[in-house]
Structures are given as structure tokens and as C-alpha cells.
Amino acid sequence: MENKKLYVGNLKYSVTNEELTELFNQHGAIANVNVIEGKGFGFVEFETQEDAAKAKEALNGQDFQGRNMRVDYARPRKPRENSWNDRY
């Protein structure tokens, strides 16, 4: 399976999509960036798996705004069980 989406953790809560885009853009063409506001993590999706692999290798454990980032391949979302819509 080709994985082009990276999980980026241990971010400052104030990090923006633009800041993450600027950092990861140095490693390849980005398709999408989504920082989860107020949670300290986000996702960066690249155009190709090769670019995602390069970014993961280069940035995992690196300092960004005073914190060591955790960069890994994103796992697929699990379907939510027992959600409100399923019950009614």
C-alpha cells in the first residue's frame, strides 16, 4: 500500500497550517496540510510516496519551534462505532 500521508506530532499548540507547509515543502510537493487546532498534532499529505518518505526521514525527531517532532506514516481512520447517527 502506498502511503503519502504523514502524522506529525509533538507540535506546539500554536502551530499553523502555513508554518507546517513551509517546513515540509522543502521535501517535496504537498497535496494537503491539516493541523488539528489546539491538539499538538497534524497531518501532511504529499503528492508522492517518495516525497513522504524523504520528509519522514529528514524531519522525524527534529526540532521545530523548540519541540522535537514525531513524524510517522498516518494510519487510516477507524470507523466510529456507536455514533449518534447510528443510534437514531
How much helicity do the residues have? Answer: 25-40%
Number of domains: 1
Number of strands: 6
Shape: globular
State the CATH class. Answer: Alpha Beta
Strand content: 25-35%
Task: Give the strand order of the largest sheet, numbering strands 1, 2, ... along the chain.
Answer: 2-3-1-6
Identify the CATH architecture. 2-Layer Sandwich
Order of helices and strands: EHEEHEEEH
Structure, described:
With 88 residues, this protein is an alpha+beta fold. Helices cover 26% and strands 30% of the residues. It has three helices and six strands; from the N terminus they run E-H-E-E-H-E-E-E-H. It has helices at residues 17-24, 49-59, 84-87; strands at 5-9, 30-36, 41-46, 63-64, 67-68, 70-73. Strands 2-3-1-6 form a four-stranded antiparallel β-sheet, covered by helices on one side. The chain has a two-stranded antiparallel sheet with strand order 4-5. The termini are far apart. 18% of the residues are buried.
Features:
alpha+beta, 88 residues, 3 helices, Alpha-Beta Plaits, four-stranded antiparallel beta sheet
